[in-house]
Amino acid sequence: MLIAIAGALFLGACSSDDTSSSDNGPVITGPAVVDLSTTAEPSSDSTTGVADASLPISEPAAAETAVTEPAGTTPTTAEPTTTTVAPTTTIAAYDSEIYGESSNWICRGDVADVCDEEYPLTEVASDATLTEVPYAVADDSAVDCFYVYPTVSGDPTFNSDLVADNEIGTTQSQAARFNQECTVYAPLYRSVTAGGLFGSVDGDFATGWRMAYEDVLDAWRYYLANLNQGRPVVILAHSQGSFHVVTLLREEIDPSPSQRDLIVSAIIPGTSFQVAKGDVVGGDTQNMPLCRAADQVGCVITFQTYRASVPPTSGAIFGRPGEETDSACTNPGALAGGPAILDGAFGVSDWVFADPATAPAVETPLVGVPGLVTGECLTTADGYNYLGVTVNADPTDARGDDIPGDGAPNWGLHTIDMNVAQDTLIDLVQTQVAAYQN
Predict the structure, then answer these.
(1) Which of 152, 214, 255, 308 is deepest in the core (most CB within 10 A)?
(2) What is the phi-psi region of residue 49: left when phi exceeds 0, alpha when psi lies from -120 to 50, beta otherwise?
(3) Residue 169 φ then ψ, to 5°
(4) Could you give the CA distance from residue 10 to residue 172 in angstroms, rounded to a whole number?
(5) Residue 263: beta bridge partners?
(6) What value does the CA radius of gyration of the chain take, rounded to a whole number of Å?
(7) Which string of b and e fits 169-190 if b means at least 16 CB within 10 Å?
(8) How far apart are CA 62 and CA 255, in angstroms?
(9) Neighbours of 339 (CB within 10 A)
(10) Closest by alpha carbon to 14, among 370, 369, 365, 374?
């Protein structure tokens, strides 16, 4: 198995330059994805503001070991402390040299940061009518979101440092808008960088991947013991972050009743989460099933986005089944199965309108295109499960007839996994939180 990396879709940033910046920090807008089977230089995608690189790994065997057999550490043994919500759980005391410092978090509930801001969206109807959607940050939320970002670091080392750069814009794009429902916690971690995955810097993949995962594990344990205070948790991640969260679920959370009791859901697109064939559990987790109803909690939402007309083919990373397992797909708009409209959040760009020159001015950093995108979990002849996206184009209306986000062959719409259904996911989290609290 090769490892995916995904980049940042910054709110409203659509520059074609190699890098862009904002008041909230620089955001990579290139390179775009390249075919894993080649070593060609990646090219930029100027229509989306997305940075993503499908980078060839020189030693696939090492990469597979790093993902499927991560080395976790034994949980710290200490006197447990009792939390304050039902069901009553016990979380062991834990300290961290890294995550005890608030500077090593992009977002943390006790610090003012980018996850405290508003990121409003304007819906663009088929007749070009604009409707700004009300936005309110849940300042005193009783729910947390714990987010692990994908590979976006351009640091010239195999693993990134703990200084936030591109990670800020990615967090804003993928996770910050969940602040309408939860308090967002986003730790910095020493992710494997784009250079590390592309092979432009020296390093051992298994060692670097383990370092990244152990930071995520360290941050999670510190968060639970010191910051969570018994609140229910939604886990969010994408691409490299999702691979690490799969390991976290398998090795740390799923075996622990105390931790499982706190989980509202784990939303982990852009990976290949495994379940027993024909089942909703039994692969990467033995207790936490796939979510199959909007009011189900303690479950997993996972998908890998491709155009329905361009499904994954043999050799694709995302959606790949195991020898004895299936790679799962859950449609955020229809957890029980079947097609559903997906409501996303995209940076404002020319593709939204059929005639950008006469388009009305959008005043928010984001747009939604209600009714334009339909998603359905589909299966290929060789067993790949994926979220097939169909664009409901109408050449007679005022909107554009397609969406951006395509990567290299066999990578589908990986760059927009977290954006193509973002508002659908936020609505789903709201329903799940209500079910958890009742």
Answers:
(1) 152
(2) left
(3) -60, -35
(4) 7
(5) 233
(6) 20
(7) bbbbbbbbbbbbbbbbbbbbbb
(8) 26
(9) 16
(10) 365
Q: Which residues is 131 bridged to in the sheet?
A: 123
Beta bridge partners of 266: 235, 300
pTM over 0.90: no
CA dihedral 212, 281, 326, 429 (to 10 degrees): -70
The upper half-sphere exposure of residue 338, i.e. CA atoms within 13 Å in the direction of its Cβ, equals 4
By CB atoms closer than 10 A (0-12, 13-18, 19+), residue 370 is: middle
Q: How confident is the model over 241-296, as pLDDT tens digits?
A: 999 999 999 999 999 999 999 999 999 999 999 999 999 999 999 999 999 999 99
**Closest by Cα among 302, 305, 304 to 292:** 302
Residue 127, CA distances (Å) to 158, 221, 367, 395 in order: 49, 50, 15, 12
DSSP 244-303: HHHHHIIIIITT-HHHHTTEEEEE--SS--EEETTSSSBSS-SS--B--STT--SEEE--
Cα–Cα distance measured from residue 159 to residue 67, given in angstroms and rounded to the nearest whole number: 16
27-28/19-20 β-pairing: antiparallel
3-state secondary structure of 144: strand
pLDDT computed for residue 5 by the predictor: 33
* Residue carrying the six token digits 């993928």: 174
Burial class (CB in 10 A: 0-12, 13-18, 19+), 69: exposed
Residue type, 329: C
